[in-house]
Each structure stands twice: as C-alpha cells, then as structure tokens.
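Intended use. Records like the one below are meant for learning the mapping from a protein sequence to its folded structure. Do not use them to infer anything beyond what is encoded.
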Amino acid sequence: MQFFAIQRIIGLLLVIFSITQLPPVIVSLIYNDGALNAFLVTFFVTIATGAALWLPVYKSRKELRLRDGFIVVVAFWTVLGLFGSLPLILSEHVTISITDSIFESISGLTTTGATVITNIESLPKSILYYRQQLQWLGGMGIVVLAVAIMPMLGIGGMQLYRAETPGPMKDSKLTPRLTETAKALWYIYLTLTILCALGYWAAGMTVFDAIAHSFSTVSIGGFSTHDNSMAYFIDKPLIEVTAIIFMFISGINFALHFTSWRSRSIKAYLMDAEFKTYLSLMLIAIVIATSYLFYTNHFPTTNQTILNSVFQVVSIGTTTGFTTQEYHLWPGFLPIMLLFLSFVGGCAGSTGGGMKVIRFLLLFKQGKREIMRVIHPNAILTIKIGGKPLQTRVIESVWGFFSVYVAVFSIMLLALMALGLDQVTAFSAVAACLNNLGPGLNEVALNYASLDDSVKWILCFAMLLGRLEIFTLLVLLTPAFWRR
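Structure written out for the chain above:
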C-alpha cells in the first residue's frame, strides 16, 4: 500500500476542491447576500488542510496500485462530504445541525438530492448556487476531472478511473490515453450543461435559475432553488419539456455521446443494447403511468396527464428526483412502480444512479438462459450483448453486485425500522438514498428533516454506497483488502 502517495493525492485533490469555493464567493459578491465569510473561511481551511497533507510527502511519486485507487476514491468522497458541509455549518443563514449539514453535502456530491433544508427560497443566493454546484461536481465525479490533471502532476490515474467509473465493464476507454478519456467526458458534460442552461433560459427561467437547474439536471441530481422543485415553473411547460430532454440524455452512457459526436451519426445509439433497453423501459413506464392516470381521472386535461406522466417517469427513472407533482400521492401502484424504476436507474457510464440498465439487462438475459437450460439441459447457451458473447467473469460480477446490493438494502431497511420508521418510509428512504434518487414516500416524500440523526448517518452511508457502486466502499471493510 502506497500510503504516502495516497496522502499526496488526497492533499492535491483537497487543494483542487478548495478552488470550487470561489464561484460561490463571486455569487455572494454579486448579490451581496451576507454569506461571503462562510465560503472564504471554507476556502482557506480546505486549501490549508490540502497543503498540510501534500507538503510532507510531495516527493512521493510511486504509481498507484488498484488497492490505492479504491482508498483514494473512498477517502476523497468521504473527506469531500465533510469539507463540503463547512459553508452550511459556518453560514448564519442556514440554521441546521452539523449532522444535517454533512447529510446535505453528501446528498449533493453523490447527486442524491435528498434534502433536510426547509424554506429553501429564503437562503442566500450563494448558498443556493453552492448546493447546485455540489451536485454538478459530483455528477461526473471530481475524481475523473482529477484524472485529467494528475498525469501533469506525475500521478498515474488508471486505478482511480477504474474505481470511480460506474458499471460492470470498467476497462473500456474512449481514447487510447486515459487523460484524453477524462477530458472527453468532461467536454461532453460541460457542453450538455451549457446547452441545458440555454434551454432553460429560453423556456422562461431567470439566468440564475437556468444555470442552477442545469447543474442539477445534467448531473441527475435533483436539487432545486425552490421549495416546490420544478412545480415552481408549472405555468411554463417548455421548462418541463427541456428538463425531460436533458434528464433523458444525461441518463445515457456518455461513451455513446462521445462516439456519436465523433462519428457524426446516431448509429451508436441505435446499435447499443443498453440504450435500447433504457428507452424501452422508459416508454413502457410512461404508457403504464399515463394509462392509469387517464383511467383514474387524476388530472383534468389530457395534456396535463401526458406531461406530468412523462416528466415523473423520466425524473424518477433516471434517479434525478425533480418533481412537478406530489407523485407519492398518485393513485394505486404508481408511486411504488416509479420507485422500482429507480432501482434500474440510468445507463452505465452516465450520471444516473441505481443498479444501471446494463446490469438489469444482463440479469434478465441470465434468467432467460436458466429457463432455457431447464428446457434444453444439454444446450450450450451464451449471453450476448450487441451480438458479442460476454465473458463469464462479467456475468459473475453482475450476480455478485446484485446479491450484495440486496443484502445491504435489507440490512439498512431493518436498521431503519428498528430505529422507529414505518415500513414504507424505511423502504423508500433506503431505496432513494442507495439509488441516489432523493425523494421517497411517506415521511421522506418532501424532505428528510424529521428523521433522527442516527437514521441520517445510515442514509449518508447508503448514499456513498450508491455513488461508489457498493463494492468500491465495501471492499475496504474486508480484512483481505488490508492483508499484504
């Protein structure tokens, strides 16, 4: 284990993160909202801590191993969550506890969107901006950005990339050089953010709201600058349409965006099995939700029924978590169906949460193969994606992920119920945090402010597990990881 190299990287990453405190400083100066000192103090504390970690070991330039990559990723997301909470703790305008501040910070960075803050609109503009920025940084992963910078600092980044990238197939790169891969991801991410902000602005948002919501849309985060989330703009349907488009796009594998852009063709999407599954699941859920809302006459007009149905399916299905309606009050089975859709989540290589569409597809194909084996015991059956057979190792990893996911989910569900939550609240809270969704049902439908601190700490752990795809974090808790 290269502990000095790990310390050096954590120090450098904290220095990089300290720079992200400067945009809120500018916002605070523009609006003169009185929150300037909180960000300045956070900036100096973060950069000083980073420098204190880096300076004693700045000459350590050993190449990272796979184990080191896991430690850096987990340590950094944990440390980032703590330092990210400082502006909320220090600001006199945010009257929440330290636990709530850390919960809000981790929720933002993991793009979960579960909030403990009520009366959001009363917060200073810089705090509102900062919450959105946390999600934007967490969306693609600030670690991937650091991967693009680290080679210039003499630090190899492949192990960080493998530990951070979502999905079961982590070794594929868009370009031969890892630095160029990370840069390509961020160029796409930044371009989508700019286009989304322009789309919101053209649809009727103010410049501030357009930028803020573009951050949480492209990151599949779900934070809003208004208590009513996207329902605040209910009288401007073009805003909802814009959100639907960019939530759906951001839930797609960014490698497909890159391939399509480079080839100037949409063929990459049409040929991708995961994308076709993703699109099919969305369409099926939309048809079911729309039909049932029509059947129950839940909305007075056809346009309202269709628009609200499409918006909530895409928002919950991609694990964004924006709401235009209190979907938890929708009739019949719809709230549970939408929550189940979040278990699948977005595509691998996207900013979405959940188990990822590719895993869902592989589990379905594996189940289908087992049925065929019962019918034809002697047949040799292979699982193919895009016409190409998959290695047994990939299938095993998917089953391993699914089994650990179910076990972790069950343990956390029982823990929350033991702490006094009812079944629906506990189930939806764990699902919403582990899938990085945000809004749940019952007591956590609107916010998480009423929960006990012990419950919030468990849910913080769930959010980190979901963001780091469970294994990245759990592997550090195994004795075998620390043996030589």
